[in-house]
Design a protein that fits this description.
Layout: E1 13-18, E2 23-27, H1 30-38, E3 45-51, H2 57-76, H3 78-86, H4 99-115, E4 118-119, E5 126-133, E6 140-147, E7 152-154, E8 161-163, E9 166-167, E10 171-175, E11 177-178, E12 190-193, H5 199-202, E13 208-212, E14 222-223, E15 225-228, E16 231-234, E17 238-241, H6 243-250, E18 254-262, E19 266-277, E20 281-291, E21 297-298, E22 301-302, H7 306-329, E23 334-341, H8 349-358, E24 364-370, E25 381-384, H9 387-403, E26 408-409, H10 418-422, E27 427-433, H11 452-469
Parallel strand pairs: 9-14, 11-12, 12-13, 13-17, 20-23, 20-24, 24-27, 25-26
Antiparallel strand pairs: 1-2, 1-3, 4-19, 5-19, 6-7, 6-18, 8-17, 10-18, 15-16, 19-23, 21-22, 25-27
Helix pairs in contact: 3-7, 4-7, 7-11, 9-11
Length: 475
């Protein structure tokens, strides 16, 4: 049974199904309760069902919830099903090299097969590439606080701190702390920052940097050396810390902190997932893509990656269904390839590997990539991609987004898998919302943030564009 925040109907008593499967009944006016609670529900409330009488929970509530699920699925189909599956506990943040990412690859491959896509290369739906993997459970990380009375406190990974960046070398240090970026002895201390604004002024000065974050995020960026006036030197060591830990460190009774980090890596084969709708002209192809990976977990915190990028993958899956059905009625003029790119969070290794494989197989290629769409307060779409080669493509896609009331803003875009195409002088753009960075890469990226009507509009816009103008080259 799927669960999602929604008010079904408004009668007399309200039953709330909590994330752990518990249910409570709230008596009172359903409409009044629904309106007052709708804005205040926390992320643990997964569904609200209102019934006209007090009834046995075990026997009679389940049909109401299943009816709700059936109604939503009829409207949103794989858009909802895909998001809920990809962000589940089992997929555990979809980090490459982990079981959750493997399940993601299997899920999308099975979906492509069931819909009826052909293997992208007529042999397999999978394309492998090599990547150094740092499994979260195998890394050695520690942060210990030493108090002046001789006691210590072990900070908890995921709750008190996470990685800001990774360094290849083993780090082990104990040093006094300072909050003053102009401290004369900063080179012998760990600097504590109230936010990221001052990083550039101190990261190369202090022993290490601890940065307060409102919500702890995660990073897969691995640093070894940085360039300083033309010379390479060791990269700085940095952790993110919580508000609570920041306040603890502010107390006058803190003597020093100990930090430890040792990366344990293993090279593994990671897979993109790709399927094809054959067209009349096998010299032309449009690649529709979305990255399937995310950041995994830290301690007990899962980075579910809902906006980033389960929603984008769900759009791609919805387009698989729609465009395959259309191709049965009337074959397209060109091939259409759907790719779930892996390892976008690791220097876009997946899309880099894929474009190298297909660039010589087609005379005409362009890419539409979906990355970070559907946030309720995400603002307008930005169509990212090099202006010189993508101007016509951007202009034409914008027309179809407008039909569904989706605004496009012409600001500079962001980095995503379209860049792997652009580097090869191949047209490629990414559709992503402007105001999503405050929730990406942290545990607050949850299903409650999504507007599924908006996501469906993005999918229908791309579908209409492909059906009407997808055969063009956009020179």
């Amino acid at each position: 049974m799927r669960k999602q925040s929604v008010v079904l109907s408004l009668f007399l008593s309200m039953i709330i199904i909590l994330g752990g499967g518990q249910m409570i009944i709230v008596q009172g006016d359903g409409a009044q309760l629904g309106n007052s609670m709708r804005e205040d529900m926390n992320s643990s409330v997964m569904a609200m069902v209102v019934v006209d009488e007090e009834i046995p929970i075990e026997e009679d509530v389940k049909p109401w919830v299943e009816q709700w699920h059936d109604q939503r699925m009829e409207s949103y189909g794989v858009l909802l099903e895909g998001v809920l599956t990809l962000t589940s506990d089992e997929h555990r943040g979809r980090l490459p090299g982990t079981e959750g990412n493997h399940l993601t690859v299997e899920y999308i491959e099975k979906y492509f097969k069931e819909i009826g896509l052909q293997p992208h290369d007529q042999v397999s739906y999978l394309q492998g590439f090599q990547q150094m993997i740092y499994h979260p459970d195998e890394q050695a990380l520690a942060l210990r606080i030493h108090f002046k009375d001789g006691t210590t406190r072990e900070a908890e990974l995921g709750m008190d701190y996470t990685e800001q960046s990774r360094v290849m070398r083993e780090v082990e240090m104990t040093a006094p702390i300072t909050f003053n970026i102009k401290d004369e002895d900063i080179k012998e201390k760990v600097i504590i920052l109230d936010g990221p604004e001052e990083i550039q002024h101190v990261y190369d000065q202090a022993q290490a940097v601890l940065i307060k974050r409102k919500v702890l995020g995660n990073s897969l960026r691995v640093w070894d050396k940085i360039m300083d006036n033309g010379e390479a030197r060791p990269a700085p060591f940095m952790f993110q810390i919580s508000q609570e830990l920041f306040e603890t460190l502010q107390a006058e009774n803190v003597e020093s902190v100990s930090l430890y980090s040792k990366l344990v890596g293993e090279e593994k084969t990671i897979y993109n997932v790709a399927g094809r709708i054959p067209g009349k002209d096998s010299n032309k192809v449009v690649v529709i893509s979305a990255h399937i990976d995310h950041l995994g977990w830290a301690g007990e915190k899962i980075f579910r990656g809902v906006v980033d990028n389960a929603a984008g993958v769900a759009v791609m899956m919805d387009l698989v269904q729609r465009l395959h059905h259309q191709s049965i009625e009337e074959p397209f003029q060109m091939d259409i390839i759907f790719v779930g790119f892996n390892s976008k969070k690791s220097e876009m290794l997946g899309s880099n590997a894929y474009i190298k494989q297909i660039k010589d197989k087609y005379d005409k290629i362009y890419n539409i990539n979906i990355d970070c769409v559907g946030r309720k307060t995400g603002g307008p779409i930005i169509i990212s991609g090099g202006e010189e080669i993508n101007q016509a493509l951007k202009k034409n896609i914008t027309k179809y987004l407008a039909i569904y009331g989706i605004n496009v803003e012409g600001q500079r875009g962001f980095d995503s898998d379209h860049l792997s195409f652009n580097k090869e002088e191949i047209r490629g753009v990414t559709l992503g919302q402007r105001d999503v960075l405050t929730v990406t890469h942290n545990p607050e990226d949850i299903v409650a943030l999504l507007d599924f009507d908006y996501i469906k509009g993005v999918s229908l816009s791309i579908y209409d564009f492909i059906v009407a103008e997808g055969y063009k080259s956009f020179d």
